[in-house]
Amino acid sequence: MDSPGQGVHGLTSKRKMTSRILIKIGGRAFDGEDGFKQLAQAIKKNPQAEVIIVHGGGAEISQALKAAGRETVFVDGMRVTQAEDIKIVESVLSGVINERIAGWLSKNGVCCRRMSGKTERLLIAEPLLTRGGKSMGFVGKIAKVTAAAVLDALAKKEVPVVSPISGDPAGQSYNVNADSAAAALAAGAGCTDLVFVTDVPGVMVGGQIRTLLTVAEARGLIADGTITGGMVAKMESVFEALDGKVPRVHVIQWQGPETLRSILAHQNIPGTSIHHA
Questions:
Q1: pTM of structure
Q2: Contact by Cβ (8 Å): 248, 192
Q3: Is-contact 8 188, C-beta < 8 A?
Q4: How confident is the model at residue 17 (pLDDT cuts 50, 70, 90)?
């Protein structure tokens, strides 16, 4: 893997004292405009924080593919994306959803800049194979990050709203998992925090939220079966970001406009924070 712009885990600019937070949007809290109105309030209340937003859109992609008569097949938890599918996937993610999120934030007073992984070669992708080494079509993983477009937006006090659709060096579009894209971009853009907003309140152990986990502890909870299902895949993105020198990664449930302030203050964070020992 290349080093971004230097590469996926390098930095394209020196870290500032300013907090730079990447929020990967997910969960029912952001199904409608109300959640984004709260997010806009949080961003405006914390002008000292530079905010980057990455979004997915699995449910709407499935609906669009179904409407087009395309069968959805998942392998290793990833959507197999054929040539006929990638155009639909890209139009939903980089078009419909990206425009809607930026529109809602702009309507509520936040200046945004729409982009995807293909914008100025922000995220360069390469094919992602199944665990058995087979092709999944135009499904990709991030090989390189060149964060100039994002850093330029932040310098101009704009919030980048990023679709995870990325391109290979020739410009061919690839469908990249949004959690993985968020992890790579957080590392490449020199973020101080990466926040995965989900429908669950954090990592649950014995019926209780674990507010703090080391990477070693998290790997142990995966190995003993405490962490299962979709949270395992999310943890892989957490580990990727931490290995890329992002100091703190959080898995949280959105709790309203004060959520961002809690993360910035490193206290009363509504979820689980994961870090290296």
A1: 0.92
A2: yes
A3: yes
A4: low
